[in-house]
Design brief:
The complex is a heterodimer. Chain A is mainly β. Chain A is 0% helix and 55% strand. Classes of the chains: A mainly beta, B mainly beta.
């Protein structure tokens, strides 16, 4: 079964707009929720992460919103730039030190 | 510069042949991981190792094998038993013991089996 559901699969945003990517999970034992950014031909890199004791975390133009009761979290990219064009993965982690990834969202920011 | 080196970047093999993908890290990390990435499928865990001489199966271990004889190295062998081996393979590491630290990924090996 798919433990982490990510949507949308692809997203096109104009420069300066807000990009929003959503993830939903099933396992209530998850307690670590990172977002990774991947450029073509490269490995993913950590963008921002949150733990369930807070509902929001902001780093620059990137914000994670977390809803524990709904088992959902989202990535918001403010003032999106063409350089943000990449594939974004949400992930969930727990005490077994493994991450379960969503299927990814291809973001295209048009100039 | 510390990091993870995966080699080669592109690898081509004939069906029925085993192939070994290299992963070396100089970050002094305890834990290492192998993920497989297919278009639209995200990253799926093949094997992971939290300490030298120990490793565990991930979600899609069938047709793969690993070894962890040295802290710095975690090679992955794709055997002829893997039914659909063509994919992008990513190696990663963390200091271990906790997921507070991010996964550090290499730049991957793209394997094509024909």
């Amino acid at each position: 079964q798919q433990q982490v559901k990510q949507s949308p699969q692809s997203l096109i945003v104009q420069k300066g707009g807000i990009s929003i990517i959503n993830c939903a999970y099933e396992n209530t034992a998850f307690d670590y929720f990172p977002w990774y950014q991947q450029f073509p031909g490269k490995g993913p890199a950590l963008l921002i992460a949150i733990r369930p004791d807070v509902s929001e975390k902001k780093e620059g133009r990137f914000t994670i919103s977390f809803n524990k009761s709904a088992k959902q979290f989202s990535l918001h990219i403010m003032d999106s730039q063409p350089g943000d064009s990449a594939t974004y993965f949400c992930a969930c982690g727990g005490s077994n030190y493994k991450l379960t990834f969503g299927k990814g969202t291809l973001l295209t920011v048009n100039p | 510069d510390g990091g993870i080196t995966q080699s080669p970047k592109y690898l081509f093999r004939k069906e029925g042949q085993n192939v070994t993908l290299s992963c070396e890290q100089n970050l002094n990390h305890d834990a290492m991981y192998w993920y497989r990435q297919d278009p639209g499928q995200g990253l799926r865990l093949i094997y992971y190792s939290q300490i030298v001489n120990d490793f565990q199966k991930g979600d899609i271990a069938e047709g793969y094998s690993v070894s962890r004889e040295k802290k710095e190295s975690f090679p992955l062998t794709v055997t002829s038993a893997q039914k659909n081996p063509t994919a992008f393979y990513l190696c990663a590491s963390t200091p271990g013991g906790t997921l507070n630290s991010p996964l550090h990924f290499g730049n991957g090996t793209r394997l094509t089996v024909t």
